[in-house]
Every structure is written in C-alpha cells, then in structure tokens.
Structure to design on (817 residues):
C-alpha cells in the first residue's frame, strides 16, 4: 500500500511540473508584487507632495483673504478669487486621499461638500453668536470649505461691484469675519493632515503592507475607487445631470458660483486619478501591481477607458451647469464614459488584486 | 446482500464521538458568529432579503433572530451532551436551516453541509452511548448500532469531497490554475510559505493536488492501511486552506474533526473509556452487548428516507446538465453541488427604472436598498439580479409608478477574464418570471471552460 501512496505523491509532483513547464519561461515563472514600493511611492511621491502643494495654496488663500478683509476693492477681490481658484485646482489631487489623518477629521467633507447650503450659511454669517468652532460639527459641513469661499467671492452678487457693495456695506464685517473663519479652517485642517503624514503616519501607512482588509494597500485602493465612483463620477457630474433622478440638479456642480471652471476642475481630478492608476515619471501606479501579476490587459483597458472619459468630458461645455441645463444627455453620456472606468476598477482591478471592496465581513468558500 | 448489510452491527463509539464533536463545534461556531456581530449585520440590518426560490414564506425575524441563535446554541450543547438528543438535533436542524433560508446572500457550501448533516443526524442513534440520555436510562444505552448508521455519515462526507473534486475537473482549474493563480500571489506576505505563493508552478501544484486530494481522500480514509496517512493529508490540507483563506472560517476545523468518523471503533472506544473513567469517573457495564434496533413501526420508513436522502444528494449536483451554456457564468444549478472556491467572480450591476407613461428614467443607488455584502453577491448572480429587479418593481409600484420597467447594465469578470456585459440590457426584468427555466436574458459567455 505504501507503494501506492508514494506513487500517488510522485504523480502529483509530476503532474504539477508538467502543467507548469508548458507555459512558463524563466522570466514569468514567478509573480512579484512589491506592495511596499507602491505604498512608498504613494506616500512620498503623491500624498505628501500633493498635501504640501495644497498647504501652500491654503496659506496663499488665507493671505489673499486677509488682504481683502483689510481693504475690499476690485484688486484684492480679484487676487482672492485667483487664490481660491488655484487652491480649488490644487485641491483636486488631495481630495482622493481621504484616509488616515484626513479621514479622522472628515477632511474631504469639510473642504468640499457641495452643494453649499446657502440658506444656512447666510444664517450663520448673520448670527452674531456664531463661533469658529461651530464649524467642527458635521452638520456644518455644507456651509464651509471651498464651496463656501466660492459663494463668498463669486456668489454674493451678479457683478464685482455688487459683491464689493456687500463687503463695504453695513453687514460687511459679518461677511468678512465669516470669510476669515472659513479660510482659516481650510488652512488649519490641511496643515494638521500634512503634519500627521510628515509625523508618524507615513511610516504607519508604508509599513502596514499586508494583504488583509486593514492593510494600507487594500485601504488605499478602496478609497481610490470610492472617490472615483462617488465624488468624481457622481458628485461632479452624475448627480447634477440627474443620474439617480428624473430631473436635473445643475446647481449641485462644483464651483457653482463660477460654473465656467467646473469642467476644468473635473478634468484636473480625472488627471490625478489617472496618474494614481498609471503612474508617472517619478511615481509608481496601481498599474504596476497589475503588471507584476501579468495583467497588462487590465491596464490597457483602464487606460483606454480613461482616454474615452476624457474625450467625452472635453466635448462638454466648460460650464457644466450650462451644459446640464441645455443638453443633459451629453452630460449623462460623459458620465457613462466615467462609468466604464468604474466598472473596470470595481470588477477587474479589485478581482485581480484580491481587494476586499465591501467592508462587510462574512465567511466565504 | 443489502439485507445482510442492513443487519450488520458496529460499536456505537464512532457515532457518539462524532455527535459530541459536532455539537461542540457548532456551539463554538455560533458564539463566533455572534461575537463577530454577524447576526446584526447579516440578518437584522438588511432592509431586503433574498429568499430561496420556493421558500418565500421564510421571513426575517428582526431582533428575534437572536432568540433563534440562542435555541441553536443550546440545542448544539444538548446534542454534544446527548441530552434529549432527538429533540435537540431536530431543534438544531430547524433553527440552523431557518437562519440559512432567510437570505441566500450568505449561502456557503459548508452551511449547507451542516444543514443536511444535522438532518441526517436526526435519524441516527447518535445518543446510544457516551450521552446523558444513555447514562440516565440504561434502556437507552446500546453497545452496538447498525453499521449503516455510521457509514451514512462517511458517505455524506465522501460525497462532499468527491463532488468537490469532480467540480475541479475543468480547464480553468487544471490548465490555467485559476482562480488560485489570482488569489495566491497577493498573499505573499504570509510567513514561511509566502514567497512560494508567487511561483506559477505552486499554483498548478496546489490546483492539481487539491483536485486529487478531494477525489481520493474518502477512499484513502476508508482503506485501513492508508488511513493514517490520509488523516495527515486532511490536517495538512485544511491547515493550508485556513492559512491561505482565513475567511473560510470554521470550515477547516469542522472537516478535520468530521473525518474522525473514519477511524476504527476501537479508537473511539478508547477516547470514550478515557473520558468516562478519568474525567467523568463513571462505572459502565462493559459486558453489555445490546444492539440498537429501530422500532419496527418506523424502521422501514427511516431506511427509505435515508436512502432517498442520498439519492437526492447524488443527483442534485448534476442538475446543471439540464441547462445549456457555461455553468460558472450562468450559475443555473450551481448551488448545493459542492462547487467550492472554483471561481473568482466579481460583478458591477446597475438598475434603471423607466416610467412607461412619460419615458422618464433614473438609476438606482444599490446602497439605498441593500447592504454592501448583498450588493456584492447580487451583482454577479442572475437569480439575485432578477429577484432584486422584482423587489424594485414592487417598491416603485408602491411609490406610484404604474408598471415600472426595469433594465439592468451588468458587467462581470470571471477567473481573470476582462469584464464583459452579463445581462441583456434591453430586457425589461420587471416582466421576467423567476423559475427553473433557462434565463435567456443572460448574455452568452465570451470564453470557453471545458470539463465537467
């Protein structure tokens, strides 16, 4: 009997060596997935530099806002507006990194919850008992951040003259005060997140390189995909174009008080998402992990889908609000093109990298 | 010959030890399930549940689910002790199976195994010794039971293994080493064996040896000279699956202990004697050689029932042959067939509601109705997709849309093939009936998988 057992074992080994020799050469006989290098690149070449860049802009925004509060004129208003727009553009990359210290302070929602609640922000501006610390409450997320600055620099009147009239009028101090509170908070939150990354969190992030659902790799892919699906695809375009509704909500776009920049912000966000996926000269993308696993087909498909999405968005008016109001279908079509990216990310990328996408916990078989 | 076989008798011990281990492991599993918060997240939090076809009368119980788990726990303990065994095992079977039937989202082959095993145990004299019942009432103590009552459990375990092995006889598993080649490289952080998991030949080795293990192990366990080696293999195999796929939970432990049944009666008797003499300090009349006999009024009934049970078990996994098209893609006849770990399948499925009156339409946020786990399971299984479409139809009729039309955009990736459209997006699923008939709104599979 022992002979039978041994021959079975030998047969097993034989089988496996035959079956592998049929399709393996020296070079592809193993797959190497270097999660640590990828995490290091994400931390050192993307997250930290992007937050550093953005913190420069939030500082500049604060300076411009203070100059404007000191003397509200055409010139300081234009400077403030330029600083806000620059900050909004540089914010797009960091919007993705809503994990760790950013997640702990609800960073994204405090900086970019749109649509802004105009009724409530007006109440708060004109409430003499309003404190800067009141913005810490989660119910106040939709009266602050970059959408609030948008309202305060673009939304108070039709023309600059109208806007300046408010700041130089009887309620001017209230508006100036609120502007100061909002830009301070943007700057403080950004500095705190950056400080955490520059402190211990960078090492925590990079060293947590296991394949478990709490590992950084799994977590980063999760927040990356969630950002792309919910915030880029839906919040910036899909929901305003009415993807979940029979009607449209053009006023829910980003930068609604200066809507001619809304497409540009969307494209900036798309560029960054694409770079996180594909990588660049000095960054390693998620694609490299897929290539390590021999899944160049997925990388090619996602790259094509990104290009198609960009082309579809480029056919839209630079003013997404106007686009949705005049030709909703084109906006929905562009959103469908973004959807193609989502499908590949949520199906093929997640499957190939064995990512646990749902945080629901249960046994499998 | 059959008659002779049915009258053959064996020592009770293996059945008693099996009963004890089964009860204990079930009790531990229930505590684990409770502690992980799964009663809440799987049976109380969801708004909608996916019932099994034909079991629509099974309703979720809300917080009363905890009550059901309490019954399940105490009946498992009673089974282990052999206290009011018949009643306990019936209660266990009913409560466990009821919970399983609430939502097929949680379907797992090993839950199904526990369900049918506990059904089988109802009819076996597993309390004939080493049990509260037998200690209390000498009349209920038997040294011998019909051999078939022990063989029945071996047969069931054998079916599970062999069918799981046969299911692996397909080109994806054997020639592409999928899905293991997808799952293993990513686990290269595991100590010691981690680096091996990146090697292609390891994927093939594990695929082939897994298949051979499944098909051969029941026979190696049955044959005395190979039994010890077989048990070593069982331990290695299940330990490996536990290390590689921690998410399979208690299953490796349950299977490892279940195969004890293949060991000799003497082996089990030693365990029992040890426990009785050294732990329980009982004095048992060893000379008794009483044989358990089913009351003549139900004897035939029970034998026919058990026979029928196994006929069903042997035939059910083949029902997929009645359908054309790729089984792994269409999943018509996939469940209850011991198809374990065969596919890495992920889907993305979006529903659009169209109001036929004014042709307005909108997309559904699946998160509004389903939990993440339900969304995941729904997105690649056609029967879920149809059931969800019907739940949405009924919901929007209540919301005031007359005859809402429901269309689906669905993409699925299967075993390292790029995502492809899964469901015909032009078919109004609100009008499609759920049945065992082929679902012609599933789009054809774009690849080939050869084999059983």
């Amino acid at each position: 009997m022992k002979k039978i057992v041994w021959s079975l074992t030998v047969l097993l080994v034989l089988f496996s060596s035959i079956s592998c020799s049929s399709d393996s050469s020296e070079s592809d006989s193993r797959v190497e997935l270097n999660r640590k290098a990828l995490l290091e690149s994400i931390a050192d070449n993307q997250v930290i530099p992007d937050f550093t860049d953005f913190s420069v802009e939030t500082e500049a925004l604060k300076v411009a806002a203070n100059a404007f509060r000191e003397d509200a004129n055409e010139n300081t208003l234009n400077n403030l507006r330029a600083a806000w727009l620059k900050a909004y553009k540089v914010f797009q990359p960091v919007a993705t990194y809503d994990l760790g210290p950013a997640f702990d302070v609800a960073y994204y929602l405090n900086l970019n919850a749109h649509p802004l609640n105009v009724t409530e922000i007006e109440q708060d501006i004109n409430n003499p008992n309003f404190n800067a610390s009141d913005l810490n409450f989660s119910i106040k997320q939709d009266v602050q951040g970059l959408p609030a600055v948008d309202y305060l620099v673009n939304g108070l009147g039709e023309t600059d003259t109208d806007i300046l009239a408010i700041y130089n009028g009887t309620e001017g101090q209230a508006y100036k005060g609120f502007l100061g509170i909002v830009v301070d908070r943007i700057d403080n939150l950004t500095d705190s997140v950056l400080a955490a990354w520059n402190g211990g969190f960078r090492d925590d992030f990079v060293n947590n390189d296991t394949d478990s659902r709490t590992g950084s790799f799994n977590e980063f892919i999760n927040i990356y995909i969630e950002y792309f699906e919910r915030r880029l695809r839906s919040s910036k375009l899909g929901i305003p174009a009415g993807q979940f509704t029979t009607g449209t909500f053009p006023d829910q776009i980003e930068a609604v008080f200066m809507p001619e920049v809304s497409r540009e912000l969307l494209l900036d966000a798309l560029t960054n998402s694409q770079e996180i996926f594909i990588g660049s000269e000095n960054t390693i993308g998620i694609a490299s992990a897929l290539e390590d696993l021999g899944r160049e087909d997925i990388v090619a498909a996602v790259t094509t889908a990104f290009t198609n999405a960009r082309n579809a968005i480029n056919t839209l008016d630079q003013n997404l609000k106007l686009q949705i109001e005049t030709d909703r279908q084109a906006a929905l079509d562009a959103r469908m093109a973004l959807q193609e990216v989502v499908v590949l990310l949520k199906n093929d990328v997640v499957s190939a990298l064995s990512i646990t996408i749902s945080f629901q916990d249960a046994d499998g078989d | 010959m059959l008659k002779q076989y049915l009258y053959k008798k064996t020592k009770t011990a293996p059945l008693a030890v099996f009963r004890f281990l089964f009860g204990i492991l079930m009790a531990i599993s229930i505590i684990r399930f409770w502690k992980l918060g799964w009663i809440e997240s799987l049976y109380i939090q969801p708004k909608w549940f996916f019932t099994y076809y034909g079991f629509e009368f099974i309703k979720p119980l809300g917080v009363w689910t905890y009550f059901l788990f309490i019954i399940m726990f105490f009946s498992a303990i009673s089974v282990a002790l052999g206290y009011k065994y018949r009643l306990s095992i019936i209660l266990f079977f009913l409560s466990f199976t009821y919970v399983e039937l609430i939502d097929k989202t949680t379907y797992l082959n090993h839950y199904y195994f526990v369900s049918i095993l506990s059904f089988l145990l109802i009819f076996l004299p597993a309390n004939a010794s080493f049990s509260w019942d037998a200690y209390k009432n000498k009349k209920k103590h038997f040294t011998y039971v019909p051999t078939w009552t022990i063989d029945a459990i071996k047969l069931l375990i054998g079916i599970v293994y062999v069918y799981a092995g046969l299911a692996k006889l397909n080109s994806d598993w054997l020639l592409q080493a999928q899905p293991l080649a997808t799952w293993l490289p990513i686990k290269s952080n595991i100590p010691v064996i981690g680096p091996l998991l990146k090697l292609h030949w390891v994927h093939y080795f594990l695929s082939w040896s897994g298949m051979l293990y499944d098909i051969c192990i029941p026979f190696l366990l049955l044959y005395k000279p190979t039994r010890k080696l077989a048990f070593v293999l069982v331990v290695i195999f299940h330990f490996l699956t536990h290390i590689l796929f921690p998410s399979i939970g208690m299953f490796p432990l349950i299977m490892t202990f279940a195969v004890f049944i293949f060991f000799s009666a003497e082996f089990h008797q030693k365990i029992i004697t040890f426990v009785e003499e050294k732990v329980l300090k009982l004095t048992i009349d060893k000379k008794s050689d009483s044989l358990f006999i089913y009351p003549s009024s139900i004897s035939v009934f029970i034998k026919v029932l058990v026979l029928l049970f196994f006929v069903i078990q042997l035939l059910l996994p083949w029902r997929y042959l009645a359908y054309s098209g790729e089984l792994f893609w269409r999943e018509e006849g996939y469940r209850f067939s011991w198809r374990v770990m065969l596919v890495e399948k992920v889907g993305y499925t979006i529903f659009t509601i169209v109001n036929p009156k004014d042709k307005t339409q909108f997309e559904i946020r699946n998160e509004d109705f389903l939990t993440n786990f339900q969304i995941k399971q729904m997105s690649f299984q056609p029967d879920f997709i149809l059931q969800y479409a019907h739940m949405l139809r009924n919901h929007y009729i209540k919301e005031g849309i007359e005859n809402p039309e429901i269309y689906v955009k669905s993409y699925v990736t299967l075993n390292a093939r790029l995502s492809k459209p899964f469901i015909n997006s032009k078919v109004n699923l609100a009008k499609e009936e759920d049945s065992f008939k082929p679902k012609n709104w599933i789009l054809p599979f774009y690849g080939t998988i050869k084999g059983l």
Summary: Residues 10-28 of chain A have pLDDT under 50 and may be disordered. Strands of chain A lie at 279-280, 283-284.
